[in-house]
Amino acid sequence: MMTESQVTQYLEEAAKRGSRLGLERVRELARLLGEPQKELRVIHISGTNGKGSFSAMLSSVLCCQGYKTGSFVTPALTDVKDSFLIGAEPISSEEFCRLISDVRAAAETMEDKPTLFELLAVSAYVYFKNEGCDYALIECCMGADLDATNIVDEPLLSVITNVALDHQAFLGTTVAEIASHKAGVIKRHRPVVTGCRDEQALGVIRKRAAKLCSPLHMIRMQELKTVSLSLDGAVIEYGDIGRLKLSLAGAYQPMNAALVLEAVDVLRCEGVTVSDESVREGLAAVHWRGRFERLSDDPLTVYDGAHNPDAMIQTAEGIRTYFKNGVVVLMGVMADKAYESYPEILSGLAERVFTVSPDNPRALDAGTLAKTFESGGIGAEACGSIDEGVKLAGEYAKSRGLPLLIIGSLYLYKDVIKLYE
Predict the structure, then answer these.
(1) Sign of the alpha-carbon dihedral angle for 280, 305, 308, 350
(2) CA end-to-end span of the chain
(3) Could you give the angle at the alpha carbon of 75 between the alpha carbons of 72 and 80, nearest 5°?
(4) What is the reported pLDDT for 171?
(5) What is the predicted pLDDT for the residue at 48?
(6) Structural domains of the chain sorted by starting position, each given as residue range(s) with its CATH number in brackets
(7) Other CB atoms closer than 10 Å to residue 24's CB: what's the count?
(8) In whole angstroms, what separates CA 341 from the centre of its chain?
(9) Helix, strand, coil % (nearest 5) of the chain?
(10) What is the pTM of this model?
(11) Cα–Cα distance for residue pair 377/267, rounded to 1 Å
């Protein structure tokens, strides 16, 4: 079995192969490891935003019913092991080393070696099979049709959380084009639920579902009522279940919860026992990091992983909901995101923006981001490091009596959370 340092080195070498779309390598690797995905009841989740929150909520509900769930989530927030969850607990270092050692043994026999994400995706299927999970909640990384997780022919349920512009270099420049990739999770005669409300995207999803004779279920917006929102969560009403307490903050979470409730109804039709009490308990107990997560009270500091324009619009709605007097912002983003739109989205909401560069090869230079905000009429200051950014932004927020909102790439989270922990 490899050591932790050997595993790290092996995965770093795999990462150098970059991202190569296609399922040939991942299918071969899965075949060499006994097709573990075929022995799991898979809930396959695609979408631009909301995948992690949806997965966390549904897993919590199923765990409260007594089921054992495995969740594969991306990107990992603090460590690659965060992507492999049993219930809400990440895989241990020893188990991870054993898992990657086994997968590596198969991968090294391949002429065309798998990419990093292909290795991780197949590792997730192997891990959840070995752990005897009742259900595996598998998130796509990008798109769906050519995503490395998309080797499941008969998922128990397919999910498309929403569709918005993101990863245009790979998925297309229009919402319809992107939807055609996200809809790759839909499989013949298997049900699909979606929270998508964009008419162009819905047209693509409906067409794909009809072609494959896949029952399509959508959120009944007229039945969703948000009773209250706070940084401690939300109270919602949906359908016949009555009033529900949701422990996750964020103005966007009631929609994610409604999608979970639709998914539960479909799972019940598929023979899965889920009581209303498990739904109530699961939604009230769920915890998910990096989404309107309170980090500190002095000054009030909240982290929200808004990493694309659609997510930033939702974050802006959260600012209007929770912080009537505006916020101070600390932000770091990837260079391949449409960050030019952020000043307009945050206009009138952000008093000042402090910018940093996340620790990632794709990160945008802090100075470039600061100039973007300055050009958009919002005062901004580029910081030399994340430590400096947190310090300066926190001091400024405290002096102004305003909350500090840390937003942008989820790759920023691991370095930020170290400072607050």
Answers:
(1) positive
(2) 32
(3) 75
(4) 54
(5) 85
(6) 4-285 (3.40.1190.10), 293-420 (3.90.190.20)
(7) 11
(8) 21
(9) 45, 20, 35
(10) 0.93
(11) 49
Q: Reduce the DSSP state of residue 129 to 3 states and report it.
A: helix
CA distance 315 to 203: 27
The first and second tokens of residue 342, run together, are: 């952020």
Give the CA distances from residue 343 to residues 206, 369, 406, in Å, rounded to whole numbers and listed in that order. 35, 10, 15
Which strands form 224-230's sheet, in the order they lie side by side? 224-230, 233-238, 243-246
Can you tell me the distance from the alpha carbon of 332 to that of 165, in angstroms, rounded to the nearest whole number? 19
Q: Which helix (H) or strand (E) holds 398?
A: helix 386-400
**Cβ–Cβ under 8 Å, residues 214 and 192:** yes
Output the CA torsion 146→337→9→28 (10° steps): 0
- Distance, in Å, from the CA atom of 418 to the CA atom of 251, rounded to the nearest integer, reads 26
Task: Describe the strand order of the beta sheet including 69-72 as a list of residue ranges.
Answer: 89-90, 84-86, 69-72, 135-139, 42-46, 157-160, 192-194, 216-218
pLDDT tens sequence across 290-303: 999 999 999 999 99
Which residues have a Cβ under 8 Å from the Cβ of 116 and sit 6 or more positions away? 11, 14, 15, 17
Angle at 86 between CA 19 and CA 287, to 5 degrees: 90
Dihedral, 21, 207, 75, 40 alpha carbons, nearest 10: -90
| Position 405, amino acid | L
Report the side by side order of strands in the sheet with 293-297. 293-297, 300-304, 404-408, 327-332, 350-355, 380-382
- What is the tens place of the pLDDT at every residue in 111-167? 999 999 999 999 999 999 999 999 999 999 876 788 999 999 999 999 999 886 554
Distance of CA 36 to the CA centre of its chain: 23
Tokens describing residue 189? 């005669």
The answer for 87, left when phi > 0, alpha when psi is -120 to 50, beta otherwise, is: left
CA 271 centroid distance within chain: 27
- What is the amino acid identity at position 1? M
Strand partners, 133: none
> Measuring CA to CA, how many Å separate 237 from each of 156, 177, 224, 243, 245?
26, 34, 6, 5, 9
